[in-house]
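Example for tutorial group B:
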């Protein structure tokens, strides 16, 4: 079993600001960091840190050797990441004291993927494997079609939300993941959610798995004091995919994904803040001890 993640790789430029900038406002940052980011990279790191075999499918531009080194260090297999002349994607992220953020994204090399690259990357994948995707790369519909034809589980994050991209991919998707805003956008465009397995993440409230075949499943979020919420949703999805790939049922996979996100938001950064599986085990044990007996 393995996870193939067609996903963005970005360089995150994070500015800590006293409040999120207003239109036309010039604002002095109180801190700055640069690190690995992108929804795809974050999800691959989360899946690998959770114990899954994760092959990332993506692209980078010149001068990004440190990005490869970071992802490899987190356990992600990069044999399907190509190098080219298009600049590596990057994001400008503003984080306020309440850990809320605004993000401006430049896709860069993430949009340079071709059908031939996807064919090559998925050539050895099979029904026991999972394809993860988001809306920050090219070739999502092509990859989803190939994966579905191979009998793979296809987990799709409809983010950043684009109704045309969603419509192109949905016929091949096994599990659709959205936050509450994206779910509202899809309902507005289509009149309802599609009759399939859907997870809606609800931030500090938790997440709900809605299924056409079984009862809805709601998993509350763990109560923590956040430092930086950047990448929390990606952490949840990557960990969830790993849990399902490793054979956990949906309740156990959701709980572990929630725990991993809870730990991640107590640290600064995105991919670099994602905890290892052993840290999540420690967190869950501590949570169990904190629950008084009935």
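The residue assignment follows.
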């Amino acid at each position: 079993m393995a996870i193939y993640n067609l996903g963005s790789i970005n360089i995150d430029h994070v500015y800590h600001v006293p409040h999120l900038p207003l239109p036309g406002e010039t604002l002095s940052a109180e801190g700055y960091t640069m690190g690995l980011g992108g929804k795809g990279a974050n999800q691959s790191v989360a899946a690998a840190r959770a114990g899954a075999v994760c092959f990332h499918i993506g692209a980078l531009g010149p001068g990004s050797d440190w990005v490869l080194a970071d992802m490899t260090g987190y356990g992600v297999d990069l044999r399907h990441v190509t190098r080219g002349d298009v600049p590596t994607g990057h994001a400008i992220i503003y984080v306020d004291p309440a850990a809320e953020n605004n993000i401006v994204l430049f896709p860069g090399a993430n949009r340079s993927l071709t059908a031939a690259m996807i064919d090559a990357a998925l050539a050895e994948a099979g029904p026991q494997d999972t394809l993860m995707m988001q809306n920050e790369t090219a070739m999502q519909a092509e990859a989803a079609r190939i994966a579905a034809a191979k009998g793979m589980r296809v987990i799709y994050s409809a983010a950043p939300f684009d109704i045309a991209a969603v419509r192109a991919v949905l016929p091949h998707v096994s599990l659709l993941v959205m936050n509450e805003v994206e779910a509202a956008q899809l309902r507005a465009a289509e009149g309802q959610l599609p009759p399939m397995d859907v997870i809606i993440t609800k931030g500090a409230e938790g997440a709900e798995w809605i299924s056409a075949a079984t009862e809805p499943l709601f998993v509350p979020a763990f109560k923590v004091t956040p430092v930086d919420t950047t990448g929390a949703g990606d952490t949840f999805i990557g960990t969830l995919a790993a849990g399902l790939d490793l054979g956990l049922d949906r309740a156990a996979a959701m709980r572990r994904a929630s725990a991993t996100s809870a730990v991640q938001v107590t640290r600064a950064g995105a991919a670099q803040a994602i905890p290892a599986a052993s840290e999540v085990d420690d967190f869950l044990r501590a949570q169990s001890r904190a629950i008084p007996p009935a």
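The mean pLDDT is 95. Compare this with the pattern of hydrophobic and polar residues in the output above.
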